[in-house]
Amino acid sequence: MAIPSPKTLKYQIPFYQHNYAASSSFIVSIPNKPFRCRISLSTLRSVAAKHVDVATLGNLCIDIVLNVPQLPPPSLHQRKAFMDNLASSPPHKKYWEAGGNCNMAIAAARLGLGCVSIGHVGNEIYGRFLSEVLRDEGISLVGMTNDADVLNSSSASHETLLCWVLVDPLQRHGFCSRADFSKEPAFHWMSELTREVKTSIKNSKVLCCNGYGFDELSPGLLHSAVEYAVEVGTSIFFDPGPRGKSLSTGTPEEQKAFNQFLAMSDVLLLTSDEAESLTGISDPIPAGQALLKRGIRTKWVIIKMGPRGSILITASSIACAPAFKVNVIDTVGCGDSFVAAIAYGFIHNMPMVNTLAIANAVGAATAMGCGAGRNVARLAKVVDILRSSNLNEDDEFWTDILQKNVGAHEITCLSNVVNGNRNNINHVPYDKIASQLLPRLEFPRIVENVPT
């Protein structure tokens, strides 16, 4: 049977109004973007069939948190000697914690999302520890190789990645891992996505990646993962993190993969400093808008403003939400937890300001604990923070930053102080948002407390 010719379809036209053969495909044109792609009906069906909420890709590691008299020296050679000395006698298990993308996965699972962690863990005590932690949190682990020699290897290049989190007497943090001392990614021997990895990406609504993934996986492999996620209709979240600036000026392969993430991700998440480093624009809203315009599939750009709060930027609107006032103990893992809650709002199609509110609450709940991994936000603490309605409001700061961007965009700001429209900014009362968020979170909280 002859394959029907592709039909050009503007994205505004709903797909379901047409009745084409199973072999049909469409060419989707995106207005004002130099991009066209062919989408098959099988791809559209796969979007509807996804039964996993979130998959994380790479950046699975164990944080070993130690108090040290002083942080590692700046010299690379001296840092390597410092780390080798630490590794010569493995510390007690009480200092181990799941780290990297595990933070995001654990926070997401505690919000009730179904999660899969895709990555490499070795066949040693650290790998078994990490596998057990994820399993106990209800998170599936999908390895990235089927090579029996690798799976049974004791080679250092196949071992679980360790990140030494070092804390000095002034509570300053230093980080080092073996990835810091190699020009190649830690798992550079991985060359292609396995069938199991592809299945996990295809079955997931969201694929979460971050800049630290480049420390482990080759740019070519990451490029393949993005291409495949787009092909099967999986939304991509990308948080460049501190690696963003160096990746943007890295090797040609790194730049290609990094620019593909910026162009093809549905959601970009950055701090205001990271956004400035990539755009040269200090004002977070224009910086976010520049990233949005640079993207092809980008729907949301989210700027994390630390203790100030967060901003969500789309092509037609801006939403902002002040952070919550809490007793901050440790900020490690706050950004990862924040991403998990953004994924929650995105998957559940929540209003933007609601999504920011829950993300700020989850980040704040994590900051009240010590360390990341199993210490990230628990649902009960998130609910308590949302109930407190204790926003860190700075009306002058938000008015200043938003007033400069009043124009063609609809602007919404969460507030306890101001209600209604003022200076062309729609202030949404916090009580209204809390009344919408709390009911959907409190039922899982009851389930969480049922004895097993």
Please estimate the helix content: 25-40%
Quick one: how many beta strands?
19
Major β-sheet annotation: 12 strands, mixed
How much strand content do the residues show? 15-25%
What does the average pLDDT come to? Answer: 86
* Structural Rg: 22 Å
At CATH level 3, the topology of the largest domain is: UDP-N-acetylmuramoyl-L-alanine:D-glutamate ligase
Give the distance, in angstroms, between the N- and C-terminal Cα atoms.
Answer: 56 Å
InterPro entries: PfkB_dom (IPR011611), Ribokinase-like (IPR029056)
Domain Carbohydrate kinase PfkB: 59-369
Organism: Lupinus luteus
Protein name: Carbohydrate kinase PfkB domain-containing protein
Brief summary:
It holds the Pfam family PfkB. The chain has helices spanning 41-48, 76-87, 101-110, 125-136, 148-151, 195-202, 213-216, 219-231, 244-248, 252-264, 272-279, 284-294, 334-347, 352-367, 379-388, 395-403, 430-448; strands at residues 7-10, 25-29, 36-40, 52-57, 60-67, 96-100, 115-118, 140-142, 161-167, 173-177, 204-210, 235-239, 267-271, 300-304, 309-313, 317-322, 410-415, 420-422, 425-429.
